[in-house]
Specification:
It is built from nine helices and five strands. It has about 220 residues and is an alpha/beta fold. β3, α6 and β4 form a beta-alpha-beta unit.
Amino acid sequence: MEILGSARHLSGDKEYYPRKDSDSVLTKGADSSLVVDRLCDQTRGQNTAVTCFYFDFAARKEQTATSMLGSLLKQVISGMERVPEEISWALQEQKRITSGRKPQLADIIKMLQLITSSLRTFMVIDALDECTVVQRFRLLDSLKEILDKSSGARILVTGRPHVRAEIERRHAGRVTSISMGPTTDDILNFLRVRLSEDETPDAMDESLEADILEKIPGSISEM
């Protein structure tokens, strides 16, 4: 399915919505920024929040379930014209009791449950496989808690195939899995662009270029 298909699936387009009980979508190799852009375009003017988070292998020690969901919560709140009194009170109470300590995971989950129960919210989580195993499990369980209490949440997760079983085990009956990858034309176009930007053009001749354009797409398709 194309990236556009993923975005339409999440936004509720019936043409791309095969399962009404599906809240989570797993894709492989999707460009989540395109999905976010599409969701923003489709939901403009509606009472809808679009949030996103990218897991980076280099920052995997700092990117926890708490920091990730905290980031999504901040994105939702920052886009609100008026923050619900319950959320505002909870944040102020948290600061008062804990001398400014940041909200804990359980607090963030409750606030997201409250918000997404009345506000349609899309959460795009990119490169979940780059998250540490322990934090990934905590995140998946936390997302399940949110979905259990929220009818307005929709989640898109991208990652390598090995996280698929983890997601399906913790979100049984709620997952639609979409396998995505580049076409041969996509690979060829990418290679041609990169070759045209080669900083050492004298090292390239027609024979070598033809060899690259023949062998690399074939090796990728066999992966």
